[in-house]
Write a structure and sequence with these properties.
The protein is an alpha/beta fold and 576 residues long. 31% of the residues lie in helices and 22% in strands. The protein folds into 3 domains: 2-83 and 513-573, Roll (Urease, subunit C, domain 1), CATH 2.30.40.10; 91-214, Diaminopimelate Epimerase, Chain A, domain 1, CATH 3.10.310.70; 301-500, Metal-dependent hydrolases (TIM Barrel, Alpha-Beta Barrel), CATH 3.20.20. Pfam families: Amidohydro_3.
Length: 576
């Protein structure tokens, strides 16, 4: 055992000594995109000692002659792609999901209640039982769940569970009592308390109304927050995500990111959006931060909200919901306040990214951009997050105004059973309309909105190309005319996301001068059936020329035995 430990230590030291040497990737079935969006195959990749792409060697060309120490990665014919970028995720939400009740895979109300009960029994010291991921549509409930039902699972302590889309929360009676919510409590602006026929709260709080309960939840302590961030970074690396646009960061989270950056622990590049104007003023009141930690962290945008979500009928529509004729949803900001906030952010050089799901919300945001961009210009590359249900008359305005549509393909395949009921067939013509947006000349960026949807970007590629869920339904694809080609989908999660984060000169493709962020995967995505895309597994993830994930092994690359004798001066690093 002592000899094995010494051998492992020597191996680690050997690689450490090579950490600033060049890396040569050989025998790769590699693909990247050029500036025109064309697919470019390659066989080898030379990475500089600082972790940038130095040379891309096409198939059939001879790899460069190497001198001096370097690391050699034999890809063994596996497919190598640029690192994938999720243009809309919630990093801390992903981490905390791993530490709380996860209801995202539950198929029935009873299954969800069982998970809550089991978690409460396993965590007797928890002050509150917290979780997320429930979806009454998936359960086939036909209504929202109630506090009384949640009480049957656990009633001794407060329970608060966020809906899958983050736009409604389900509380038990203990939580409602602590919050002091009664029949007399009025709906807050931008929110709705679900009530019974007598006006009593039934247990679900939509959008801003959830703050009545969440404001009473004790904040996570620093140890819990650090654990959550560590879990999120590990999960993203294992899924091939080398970048994420974090859609709503507060000052405490920013401080945590800075600490991880100071300690060299950021294994994913984070393009942060401040979570509203108050947080923007706390984090960066004068100007964007600029890139930190070798381009691993920046805050140069702010996230605002125009409306809620479709599943909870909080998305703001031009006309009432087809399945709720008295309801148009929730408009979070009036036109004056939205413009004031947007202009203040633009004045200080911040990109403005506005959540808009309903056609009314998308029109409101586009109107605001149309008023402000002539004064401030379009160089900041403003965005609409989700752009989910858009009036077909408004779609051309994205390209006309230079607004990026930040879309999440798995939302379409998750919502397909509900969207038609909510908005009717006519309004679906502009819903989840990625191909129409691209054909209009608009730019799109691909994401997942994790943990609302799974963080796996191959799920997003699959949904974008097939318009099917992972059970292959519907067989012909849902509104398949809006499907993307695989090259277009890959671009959305690489070059498109990089452009949306003002990082196209740094990441998004494997070209000389850019960071060597890349992944090794177990299948050639251009040869397998489209329906199999979601099954692809990441074998390795590399950030700035250093491996941050290796499936089934420690994340740090290890030198090969002397007996393999790679080219002189090289340390061989294995791939699975």
């Amino acid at each position: 055992m002592r000899a094995l430990m010494m051998g492992a230590a020597l191996a680690a030291l050997a690689f450490s000594a090579m950490a600033d040497a060049k890396t040569l990737v050989v025998n790769a079935n590699g693909f990247t995109l050029d500036s025109m969006g064309r697919l470019q195959p390659f066989e080898s990749l030379l990475i500089s000692d600082e972790g940038r792409v130095e040379r891309v060697i096409k198939r059939g060309d001879k790899p460069p002659a190497m001198s001096g120490p370097y690391t050699r990665l034999d890809a063994k014919g596996l497919t190598v792609l640029p690192g994938l970028i999720d243009a809309h995720g919630h990093v801390m939400g992903l981490g905390f999901q791993a530490l709380t009740v996860d209801l995202s895979e539950t198929k029935t109300l009873e299954e969800a209640l069982g998970k809550v009960k089991a978690y409460a029994e396993a965590n007797p010291r928890a002050r509150w039982i917290l979780g997320r991921g429930w979806n009454q549509v998936t359960w086939g409930l036909g209504r929202f769940p109630t506090a009384a039902e949640l009480d049957t699972a656990y009633s001794e302590k407060p329970v608060l569970l966020e809906r899958v889309d983050g736009h409604a929360s389900w509380a038990n009676s203990a939580a409602i009592k602590i919050a002091g919510v009664t029949r007399a409590t009025k709906d807050p602006a931008g929110g709705r308390i679900e009530r019974d026929a007598d006006g009593n709260p039934t247990g679900v709080f939509v959008d801003a109304a959830a703050n009545l309960i969440t404001s009473k939840v004790p904040p996570a302590n620093p140890i819990e927050a650090e654990r959550a961030l560590g879990k999120a970074l590990d999960q993203m690396a294992s899924l091939g995500l080398t970048g994420v646009h974090d859609a709503g960061v507060d000052a405490e989270t920013w401080t945590l990111y800075r600490r991880f950056g100071d300690e060299g622990r950021l294994t994913t590049r984070i393009y942060a959006m401040a979570g509203g104007m108050e947080q923007l003023e706390k984090i960066a009141p004068v100007r964007p931060t600029g890139w930190l930690y070798d381009d691993r962290l920046i805050l140069r945008s702010v996230k605002l909200y125009s409306d809620g979500a479709l599943g909870s009928r909080g998305a703001f529509l031009k006309e009432p919901y087809s399945d709720d004729p008295e309801n148009k949803g929730l408009r979070f900001l009036d036109d004056t306040r939205m413009r004031n906030w947007m202009s203040k952010a633009m004045m200080h050089g911040f990109q403005v990214n506005v959540h808009a799901i309903g056609d009314g919300a998308n029109a409101q945001v586009l109107d605001a951009y149309a008023d402000l961009i002539p004064a401030y210009g379009s160089a900041l590359r403003h965005r609409i997050e989700h752009a989910q249900v858009v009036d077909t008359a408004d779609i051309p305005r994205f390209a006309q105004l230079g607004i990026i549509a930040s879309v999440q393909p798995t939302h379409a395949t998750s919502d397909k059973a509900m969207a038609g009921d909510r908005v009717g067939e006519a309004r679906l013509a502009g819903a989840y309309a990625w191909k129409t947006l691209l054909d209009s000349g608009a730019r799109i960026a691909g994401g997942s909105d994790f943990p609302v949807e799974p963080a796996n970007p191959f799920y997003g590629l699959h949904a974008a190309v097939t318009r099917q869920d992972r059970d292959g339904q519907p067989p012909e694809g849902w509104r398949v005319g809006e499907a993307l080609t695989l090259t277009q989908a890959l671009a959305a999660f690489t070059t498109g996301a990089a452009y949306a984060g003002h990082a196209e000169s740094l990441v998004g493709s494997l070209e000389p001068g850019k960071w060597a962020d890349f992944i090794v995967i177990d299948h050639d995505i251009f040869k397998i059936a489209p329906g199999e895309l979601w099954k692809v597994k990441v074998q390795e993830t590399w950030l700035a020329g250093k491996r941050v994930y290796l499936r089934g092994a420690p994340t740090a690359p290890e030198p090969a035995p002397d007996a393999e004798k790679p080219a002189e001066g090289a340390v061989e690093t294995p791939t699975s």
